[in-house]
Write a structure and sequence with these properties.
Blueprint lengths: L3 H10 L33 H10 L14 H17 L40 H4 L9 E8 L3 E6 L6 H13 L7 E8 L9 H20 L5 E5 L5 H4 L9 E5 L9 H23 L3
Parallel strand pairs: 2-4, 4-5
Antiparallel strand pairs: 1-2, 1-3
Length: about 290
């Protein structure tokens, strides 16, 4: 058992300023009662003393350059002083009304403030409103993300899903280019993530797709060095733009459903498919 001084030190270290026992153990020594000194209340001054102190307090000077609309708080602050002097039988001082600012016109409803034409360093003021970029509506789209052979992204349109016949045609096209036929689906992105105005809708959408793909690659432990965007969607052109800073090159292919009954469309797609296949084989031949 420890003594009361040590026990109080432990309690004070734990943040317990005051302590009183609630239970007494058998054969225990009774706790000493502490006598607390009650603090004396400060004496309140008499009403006459409070009035005299109020009169001796200097009044706040009235600023002449302050607008007329700001003069009412000064008059309200001087009202208790006037009532105090009236109670003591003294004459209330006259409050001088502030003069109107020279930068105002005669009509307060149509007051126009003159703006400085030259700043302190001698340079003309900069119009901040001209440099503010107006907010615009963000791009809105949905895309499905799949992976080809753990190496390439396969970005499929979300608003216009590919039919079963289109899926079969897409698999045949990938096989003809020397790539695996099927793409393993991973996730789906709906943009924007929050319905807020965008300062640059194109750059924000491009960056959103890049961050989304980078997160999926990190989650599944994949190293992506290429991509194929299927369909002529609003987001497909963002990934093949020169401003794209991703680590993989994106190849664009038309929507498979648009090529089901058109031989010309398939013929026009063949050079694009050959370019994608060549990039795929170069990635396989390059050392890790």
């Amino acid at each position: 058992m420890i003594g009361d001084p040590q026990r109080l030190q432990y309690l004070e270290a734990m943040g317990i300023a005051t302590w009183a026992s609630r239970y007494r153990f058998v054969n225990a020594k009774p706790t000493e009662q502490v006598e607390w000194e009650v603090a004396t209340e400060p004496e309140k001054p008499a009403p006459g003393q409070r009035l005299q102190a109020l009169l001796e307090t200097p009044a706040r000077p009235v600023e002449r350059d302050r607008p007329v609309a700001d003069a009412s708080p000064t008059q309200q602050a001087a009202a208790p002083l006037s009532r105090a002097r009236a109670l003591l039988g003294e004459d209330a001082p006259r409050i001088e009304s502030p003069r109107p600012s020279p930068d105002r016109t005669a009509d307060p409803d149509t007051a126009v403030f003159s703006a400085p034409t030259v700043s302190g360093d001698g340079q003309p003021p900069v119009d901040v409103a001209k440099n503010v970029v107006p907010a615009a509506e963000p791009l809105r789209f949905t895309l499905s993300l799949a992976v080809i052979g753990e190496r390439w992204w396969l970005l499929l349109p979300g608003e216009r899903p590919i039919s079963a016949a289109g899926q079969a045609l897409l698999g045949q096209m990938l096989q003809s280019a020397g790539m695996p036929a099927g793409g393993t689906p991973l996730s789906r992105l709906t943009w924007p993530l929050m319905d807020l105005p965008a300062s640059d809708p194109t750059d924000e959408a491009r960056e959103g797709i890049q961050v989304f793909c980078a997160g999926q690659a990190h989650r599944h432990g994949m190293k992506i060095d290429g991509a194929i965007a299927v369909g002529d969607e609003i987001w497909s052109s963002l990934l093949s733009d020169s401003a794209d800073e991703s680590d993989w090159t994106c190849h664009r292919l038309p929507h498979p459903d648009d090529m089901l009954g058109s031989a010309n469309a398939k013929r026009e797609c063949w050079p694009l498919l050959q370019a994608a296949g060549s990039a795929w084989r170069q990635g396989l031949a390059s050392p890790e």
